[in-house]
Specification:
Length: about 240
């Protein structure tokens, strides 16, 4: 049944007058999956509405000891990578804290076992570091903007992505970003210019990037400013 569905999907795509995708990554994946040239394929990115300059992120208004993650407690969104990276970064910074926005009532497969949030934290973090992770649960979209302004940076730990709105919204805010370099992310943000990109599932590399931004405020401001300009220039709705 699955093979028949895949064949029908491929035939429908091949017969379409035009095919669009938010990222070249996904368009190429479709080409490779179905063996279709897709000469009629085009990338049309998603749009983001950027806040005005007065509401954008600024280093002098941000909390230098707070970092932000917006996602789910699962492996696909890289919550395990983010939490482990935070544990490494926080070990040498007693004031560092992480705000985790999103559902956290699921489980992550870790070492062959399904770990809940509490069991994962108890295994991978010292109690004093785990106490510095604030789980807010899901929040309305309007509540996340103020958190992006308040936090010193945004983390993205995904194992794979098409065109993540979490990244685009952080860039539009001017928030410095540390992200895994997966899927369509490198199309949106270039490493060292708009964000610091790290390998997938590499907590040590992510912790190193976190430490770099915390130690180099000028770099954080440069990345945030460049990211906001890119969001305004390339991803505004009018574009």
């Amino acid at each position: 049944t699955d093979n028949l569905l895949i064949q029908k999907e491929g035939a429908a795509i091949a017969g379409a007058e035009a095919v669009t995708a938010p990222s070249k990554y996904v368009l190429d994946a479709v080409r490779n999956r179905y063996g279709i040239a897709l000469a009629n394929g085009v990338v049309i990115p998603n749009a983001v509405e950027a806040p005005d300059e007065a509401s954008a992120w600024r280093a002098d208004r941000a909390d230098p000891d707070e970092i932000l993650f917006v996602g789910r407690f699962d492996r696909h969104k890289g919550a395990d990578t983010v939490l482990r990276a935070f544990a490494i970064a926080a070990a040498g910074r007693p004031g560092l804290k992480l705000t985790f926005v999103g559902p956290a009532d699921g489980a992550i497969q870790d070492g062959g076992k399904a770990k809940t949030r509490d069991s994962f934290l108890s295994e991978h973090m010292a109690p004093d570091i785990a106490a510095r992770v604030a789980f807010t649960g899901p929040l309305p979209h309007a509540a996340i903007g103020p958190l992006r302004r308040r936090a010193f940076m945004t983390l993205i730990g995904s194992l794979d992505e098409n065109f993540p709105s979490t990244l685009l919204e952080a860039m539009a805010m001017g928030s410095p970003v540390v992200s895994t370099a997966v899927g369509g992310i490198p199309e949106i943000a270039r490493d060292g210019e708009h964000a610091l990109l790290t390998p997938r599932a590499d907590p040590a590399a992510m912790a190193g990037a976190i430490g770099t931004l915390l130690s180099e405020r000028a770099l954080a401001e440069k990345l945030g400013g460049h990211a906001r300009r890119r969001a305004l220039d390339a991803y505004a709705p009018v574009r």
